[in-house]
Structures are given as structure tokens and as C-alpha cells.
Amino acid sequence: MAKPSIEPMQVTEWLDGEVRAHEDYLAAEEPxxxxxxxxxxxxxxxxxxxxxxxxAGFLLTEGVITSRDQIAAIQKPGGxxxxxxxxVNIELQSCMFDAERLQRNFYAxxxxxxxxxxxxxxxxxxxxxxxxxxxSCDPEVLCTLPEKLRANQQVFGxxxxxxxxxxxxxxxxxxxxxEDVGRHNAVDKVVGWALLNESVPLSTYVLMVSGRGGFExxxxxxxxxxxxxxxxxxxxxxxxxxxxxxxxxxxxxxxERRFVIYAGQERCLTTHIEQALVHLPAS
Length: 283
Prior knowledge:
Helices cover 31% and strands 29% of the residues. The protein is α/β, with parallel strands linked by helices. It has a domain of 137 residues: Cytidine Deaminase, domain 2 (3-Layer(aba) Sandwich), CATH 3.40.140. A six-stranded mixed sheet has the order 8-7-9-10-11-12, with helices on both faces. Strands 4-3-6-5 form a four-stranded mixed sheet, covered by helices on one side. α8 links the parallel β9 and β10. The protein is globular. About 5% of the residues have low confidence.
């Protein structure tokens, strides 16, 4: 039996002077050790489930691998519920990596993320290039995404305690959604799903996240080739700087029929901009 992503727990509730005991449901959180070729690379706190996707996505977004064919096998020695169920081992084909360099305190929490000038320089050092144009997403399509994401957050619906990431195509069709206690893990699971299905780079897709659009989310989207990232909350200043530098469209406060574009407005407002130009008075 697989480890549950939801755990029941007895709690005591105080409500307007009345006290009652009842059973509540919490999002599960446990460590996952990611190994490459049997060598420990990272430990991340995650919600059990889709661990193979999480491991594959993590290796891609952290620059260990660059393509699906570099993965020879993904193994869970303990299965989904055995003693080693919090471990995933990935065997690579011929991809060389510096384990000592990559073991840079890869311990991740649900609020993880590095910041500052060193973060931007680290991204530049990986050789990421600006995303190409050619893909656009209609504002009307964008406005439909939050409701679709929320409707598919099954664990959040019972616990209220998980982040979610979802992948949509240009018409707004939902392709994959993953939940996790860590917003970065949810993104890695979605990217890992796409990688294992040989769909990377994701140059014609939109990533929607339930939390804020932080630096680590933008970084992972860039590695996966995702041109549009939307969130229900605000991005960080560093995320906006990185999005502008590498031509990623970053949308925040996407709720009902309102959103704010912080970078790359051309992908969302091409038609509106053209219409505005047509009505400009001649000089």
C-alpha cells in the first residue's frame, strides 16, 4: 500500500466558546532522499507521491541532466511503502556530474530558495539562454486557469495545506497537476512528468502555481523551456529580474478576471497592443 498524502489526526477545536474533539486531515510531509548512481545528492521535504517524477524533475531543473535520454533507470528500493520508500535512486547513462559540487546543502524546505546576486550569477553560469518568442496566451484563456487548478487540487481540498503546480497548453487544457508541501517540489513533479513523457522543452505551455511566483519557480520554468508562468500571488523582485533578463512572461495575482504582468507582456497582450497601435493618432 502506498504511503498516503493525507494523514488523519485527532484535534481539539475551539469555536465561539465551544470546544469539541474531532478528526482532521493534514497534508503528509516526509523527507525524500534523491540519489544518483547510488550516491546521495539531496534531501527534500515533500508530500509522498510521484517521487520518480520529483527526482527526474529535480535533476533537470538543477542542471544535473539536460534531457530524458540521460536517464537510464529510476528505482525506488523500498517501493511505495517499505522501509526505503523515502528514497529514489536514478541511474544515468553517460552524464558526468560533480557530486561534491552539487551537494551544496541541497536540503530544501517548503520555503526554500536562494536569493541575491549570487543566484542570478549561478543561473547565468549554467548557460541558460533567453526564451524564444512565437508562443502567446490569450488573456481570456489565462483567466480560466485558476478555477481549473483549484478544481483539481484534491489533497488541498481536504487539508488546505498544499501548494500546486499545473501545466496547461495554449488553449487552456489541463495536462498535468501535482501537489506538494513545497511549491518547488510541485513544479519539479510537473516538469518530471513532462520529462519522462519526452515533452521537454515545454515551449508551448503555461505553468500555473498556487502560491507566489518566486525566483526558484522562474528558474525551474526557464530550464524546462516554459515561456509563461502564472501565479495567484505576487512574484519576488528577483523573480521579475530573472524573467525580464531571459524573456519569460511572468503573471501574478491571477484571480477571476484580473492579473498583473511583470515581464513579457507581449505573449499575453499581442492582440491588445496591435489594436492600440492601430488607433494611435498619426504623427
